Amino acid sequence: MKLKNESSKSKIVLFVFFVFVFNFSASAFDVNDINSTAATGSWKQDGKAFPKIAFEDAKKTFFDRDNLLLLLMAGGGSIALADRADDKIAEHFEKHRSIPRGLDYITDMAGNPGIHFAATGIWYGIAANKKDDINIQRSWIMFRALAVANTATLGLKLIVHNHTPNEHFLAWPSGHTASSFTVASVLDEFYGPKVGIPAYLAAGFVGYRMMDSGDHWASDVLFGGVLGYVVGHTIAGENKELQFAGFKIQPLVTTLHDSPSAGVALAKEF
């Protein structure tokens, strides 16, 4: 296996630059141009409104202070993995493949962003045909979340432009993982932990598969998962606080052994 030779530190620098450019360009966009984010059930009307609504969704996601903190922390974790562990983890998986070929193929398909978009489109079409307003809105929100997550992922891939362990292009971050965690996060918002937890486990297995197959580094999977989680919860939650299986996610800054430390905490009121 050819070891990584890209500068991992460039990832977080380029990510910050990407967010800065996005925020600067977004400041010129008039949010009053958007009359409603609700779906009508008409492909033509919703398609026409989609670009502006998706842009507003992206602003809401990447302007949020807590979201940016989580993403920057994930970027820092990605750098740490790239510097200290990515090569070793990739070498381990290369020598110890654990997913059978058939399951590998199914998992790859299940985590494919194209499949997610297609399934969401079918969901929307069935709901629109039945005039089921609840599922029209839910499928519309899922489509919006997938669009933001996958557009951001592609943008970062094109900026960083590094290689996977098996020498494919556009490694960081993992698109399969980001899209799968977007789906899981939206489902968690819609249906709660009973659906959310199995969906997270499935998304996590997709991320594991990406490393097991050599399609991605561990650092790619880490950032992709956090990106999808943040986007899905922000867009589906309509400004609700980020939660994981009913627990509120809070940035944590504390002192450990007389040194400041940063992380995240899970909190729940009983």
Comma- or semicolon-separated keywords:
270 residues; mainly alpha; Vanadium-containing Chloroperoxidase, domain 1; 3-stranded antiparallel sheet; 10 helices; 3 strands
Give an overview of the whole structure.
With 270 residues, the protein is mainly α. It has one domain (9-267): Vanadium-containing Chloroperoxidase, domain 1 (Up-down Bundle). Helices cover 67% and strands 8% of the residues. The protein is built from 10 helices and 3 strands, in the order H-H-H-H-H-H-H-H-H-H-E-E-E. The chain has a 3-stranded antiparallel beta sheet with strand order 1-2-3, with helices on one face. It is globular, with a radius of gyration of 19 Å. The chain starts with 8 loop residues before the first helix and ends with a strand. Residues 23-35 and 253-262 have low confidence and may be disordered.
